[in-house]
Write the structure tokens for this entry.
Amino acid sequence: MSKHWPLDLTEAEMRAMMAASMDRIGTFISTLPEQAVDRSGEASTQFLSSLKEPMPELGGDFEQLLDTVFHDLAPLSLNPASPGFMGYVPGGGIFHAALADLISNTLNRYTGVASVAPALNQLEANVVRWLCQIMGYPAEARGFLTSGGSLANWSGLVTARHAKLGENFLRGTIYTSDQTHHCVAKAARLAGFPAANVRVLPADGDYRLDPARVRDAIRADRSRGMQPAILVASAGTTNSGAVDPLPELGVLAREENLWLHVDAAYGGFFRLTERGKQALAGIELADSLVLDPHKTLFLPYGTGALLVRDGKTLKAVHSSSADYMPAMQDDDDLMDFCELSPELTRPYRGLRIWLPFKMHGAGVFRRYLDEKLDMARWIEARIRNLPQLELLAPATLSILAFAIRDEDQSLAERNSATRALMQRINDKQRVNLTGTMLREVYAIRVAVGAFRTHQEHMDMLLEDLLEALASHSGTSL
Amino acid sequence: MSKHWPLDLTEAEMRAMMAASMDRIGTFISTLPEQAVDRSGEASTQFLSSLKEPMPELGGDFEQLLDTVFHDLAPLSLNPASPGFMGYVPGGGIFHAALADLISNTLNRYTGVASVAPALNQLEANVVRWLCQIMGYPAEARGFLTSGGSLANWSGLVTARHAKLGENFLRGTIYTSDQTHHCVAKAARLAGFPAANVRVLPADGDYRLDPARVRDAIRADRSRGMQPAILVASAGTTNSGAVDPLPELGVLAREENLWLHVDAAYGGFFRLTERGKQALAGIELADSLVLDPHKTLFLPYGTGALLVRDGKTLKAVHSSSADYMPAMQDDDDLMDFCELSPELTRPYRGLRIWLPFKMHGAGVFRRYLDEKLDMARWIEARIRNLPQLELLAPATLSILAFAIRDEDQSLAERNSATRALMQRINDKQRVNLTGTMLREVYAIRVAVGAFRTHQEHMDMLLEDLLEALASHSGTSL
């Protein structure tokens, strides 16, 4: 290839680019334990402004561009690849999946229609079936991989909307708790529901959706001519890790003829473990559910999933055709994903899950998830024993929340003391925690979930927590 | 790391996995010219069934898994990475972008909120601005990258719905032509519009949306109490490559107070070239527009884009907040993409475009796109000179369509002759074309667009077309 066509890389050029990339990736990964967990605050406004640039007409040196990314840009951020990352909901980003994307991108196969790449389709269909299997779904269940939980929740609501309400859905109502992830209300808005049709009910003392409250709200709505249609439960909230009472909600949904949608983006995969199975009992009653493999299957960001118990409901709303399209299947084994999901051309996400599962087996993922549960219980027990702290939410799965114990100071004082405590922990840059409001109390969350997090990092967390508490008492806030 | 935690790969393990992958990728890429373009038909039902398997509890050998993908599964498909691929809408999948994904996935940064990774955010904001710049959009324009055109079109319609109709939108109507990509009607359905509210108007003789027809339909709808709201134009249809009359439609939309949404998924990037700029005159009048970098920026599948002329309209429908979230920006430079788009956690797509643009400069992409235009005109001229063929749609950009010339046979005979001709070309397995219906005529499309396609492959196409024509005459259909 002449360099008149520089996008047409030779194999030697590709290998050189890969080697240069791998050198930097290797250094990045092998130095993770020594890297500060959060350097997002170090990016000055001036520096950021200096990065603005018009579209370049001419090119530059590849290795210099890599250095810009690896040395100048990426480090100035929160680092969710770190073993010390315990904020938001971690995952970490296994390298196997990164490699799978490299392969998929290079092969560049079209996988929206089964007949175009039937063997790769079968592979992805297998992955979808494995997810259904993990969640206890029947054989007629179907699903698809998305870019993340937000779009999976949206597709769940659109499927429910179509199945329960049809085209005239503006009187349809949705029931959920004030602990549900905010992407659900956003998904409802994008799906066309008026904001007022989403009934956000106050959760119970354990931050769980209260079935009695749902029932009351449904009855009130029916009496005023609304059409109660969708019940959204959480199987592991982001706020506190709480799991809504799924068996009761499943019964209620059936009795009231509502679609039960369960957001299990964070919690669902714990069903691979015995303890998770118990905590998530009833989840198989869901009409649709959302999983985030980029959370608790440890994948890099970019993979969610929607599963529906009755696969035909997906096709009913997503199916569409055109003259320029290839023929679709009527096959139980293969899945025309463009007929089941909103995307037509899309990245081939199946390999990201297939490759690590086939290389290590589900057993390894089970072991990692069990370890996360163990470690969350371990730190929970330590926090319970610290007199200065109050456990606000136990580790139902692997998220828990605590605050400075209420000692007759004002709520504002208590909250700012808790914030200051978290800041002291984070300032050590070995672990990173994020906070939230649980009712009116500011809470520090511990979200155990990065695959690189092991007991030594929990020891670090405890060490830094104890030190921060000591200096907190010293300043006698 | 003990192998008790096998997901925690050592640097040596990662490098070994990468080397094994690169060996296979290298072979795949360097043998592309010799590979058959379409082996999807070789996958037997029996073989596909044999691939079904339950979730594996135990792992397997990594190199064997790679061989399964590279040798057993991927080859049994249509190969859009091939230089001979001229079906549907090609792109090819540049390796730079595959490498960029590998890096993004390894770094695993959260880029939905600017403050969490501000420097990487600035990089992606630059990319969005470059796309706006290419399309002639003003400074207040905003946008975001998606997984592809379907979701970008959906987000465009949702943004338009919110801006023009608010929450009570069931009387809102959408106008488009029968040549518009079917994902638009699907996007309207997913956005909550009743199917009957999408006015699919017959295109003119050049397969373009007729402004007079739109105006009539709007008036009829207003008189029956509907709310005309959105006009969807195509800047390069999939069927024939036609570009709707954008200047006239821009005026019409303004006069009638409609939102003009332009699907430029395939055609938009030709605005980098002088000829493209002329063909796409008026595109900057669009209120929103869709681009597919995985088409005419040659990226691997998985990147579309929505741009809106008034950035505030994106925020108006997508903004959402929660206690556990970090603070959002009020900054003109950075972009909180979770406030502008439907996704919260998402893959970092910016690097896929930034890296190849910075390495080669926009000039190289311009040169490739100009080459595609040249080659489409070249084959168009050859087809015009072949007496057995009729050009049905010229190469407005890089797609054209033709059929066997009408020789007093029945329409069905003519169509099956054209189909047979295409089959003969494709059977040679050097180039791959796909067909469509243009009105009632079956048409063979030539979509020049894979970055690896150069003049030698066009020569191949002509050779195979001439041979197929000769054997067609021989069989005197």
